[in-house]
Amino acid sequence: MAQIDAINRVINLVSLVVLLFAIVKVYRQVRSLNLLDYLIMYLKYRQTIYEEMQKNPQIRQKQLLSIGITMLIATFWVISSLQHLMADWNFSNLLNVITTFGLLFLFLFQTWQTKHLNEDNRYLTFAYNYQRRHFDDVLQIFEKKLAEWTPQDDADQREWDRFHQLLERVKTEAEHNRRAAMFSDDLYALFDDKLLLHEGSEPLTFHEKGILSYYVGYWDAGPYNDYTLGMLEDMDDRERKVVTRVFNVTMGLMAAGLVWVAVRQVVG
Predict the structure, then answer these.
(1) Please, which contacts does 141-146 make with residues 24 or more away whose CB atoms are closer than 8 Å?
(2) DSSP string covering 53-71, please?
(3) For residue 25, is it left (φ>0), alpha (ψ between -120 and 50) or beta?
(4) Which CA distances in Å does 184 have to 173, 187, 252?
(5) Within its chain, how far is the Cα of 154 from the centroid?
(6) How far, in Å, CA of 57 to CA of 150, rounded?
(7) Distance separating alpha carbons of residues 242 and 244, to the nearest angstrom
(8) What are the pLDDT digits (tens) for 206-218?
(9) What is the spatial distance between Cα 156 and Cα 152, in angstroms, rounded to a whole number?
């Protein structure tokens, strides 16, 4: 058992060194650029960047190596935290187990989500939590847009009738199978500029744009991407400084938290 503990401690020490090296490397890269400008560029050319990276074998190998090393580190942290808990059952060790399991799960989910987003251009929240919470809000927005739209001629009336029938079918389906209605083709068809941006209706509010953009990410990440990009590009200098400071502080806290978890596995 002593040999296993010694090996585990060496592995965790190596993990700590690797983590510190990675943090320093990221810091040196981030320090030389404006985070907001980088994020805007990424949002504009995300899929193009991903496609070009996949064509380069060396970059793909580095990606796989990075994922593999991160997986090993997170796995060893989980094993170490479980050993500490079995040796001494207390709240601190229990919290350590929850933290390491949470980091491993978060990494796996984020890796899958990023791959899915880049390959299929679909943005999915975990277990469709966002869609479940905002389904009723989305229906209310569609109802509001139909109420604001006064048809001007026969063609306009036919379009209004079409959207009204789609909405009624979604609401009827929701009474029998809410999940099916949440992701039905009829609901997706309502995400149409003819309805949402009709010249006879009030412009969408900032809040409404956010709900619709995130919700439609189940089918297409484009509106979500454009919504986020629009927010960043519309910021003035004061807002950019505030957001950049928040990004920097958040990244610093995340780095400090990871270092604390790594040290916790070493010292026990």
Answers:
(1) 141/196, 141/204, 141/208, 141/211, 141/212, 142/167, 142/190, 142/195, 143/167, 145/195, 145/196, 145/198, 145/201, 146/195
(2) HHH-HHHHHHHHHHHHHHH
(3) alpha
(4) 9, 5, 42
(5) 43
(6) 57
(7) 5
(8) 899 999 998 998 8
(9) 6
- Judged against a pLDDT cut of 60, whether residue 142 lies above it is answered with yes
Contacts of 167 (CB under 8 A, 6+ apart): 139, 142, 143, 146, 190
Query: What pLDDT does residue 176 have?
Result: 93
Each domain of the chain, given as residue ranges in start order, spans 1-92+237-267, 126-220
Rounded CA gap, 197 and 219, in Å?
20
- Which helix (H) or strand (E) is 184 found in, with range? none
Query: Amino acid letter at 13?
Result: L
Q: Which two tokens stand for residue 48?
A: 């193009």
Separation in Å, CA 5 to CA 82, 96, 215, 217: 12, 17, 48, 46
Structure tokens at 197: 């941006």
Query: Is residue 254 classed exposed, middle or buried when 0-12, 13-18 and 19+ CB atoms within 10 A define those classes?
Result: exposed
Residue 228: C-alpha distances to residues 40, 151, 267 (Å): 9, 32, 42
0.90 cut: is pTM over it? no
- Binned at pLDDT 50, 70 and 90, residue 159 comes out as very high
Output b/e per residue, 157-196; b: 16+ Cβ within 10 A: eebbeebeebbebbeebbeeeeeebbebebbeebbbeebb
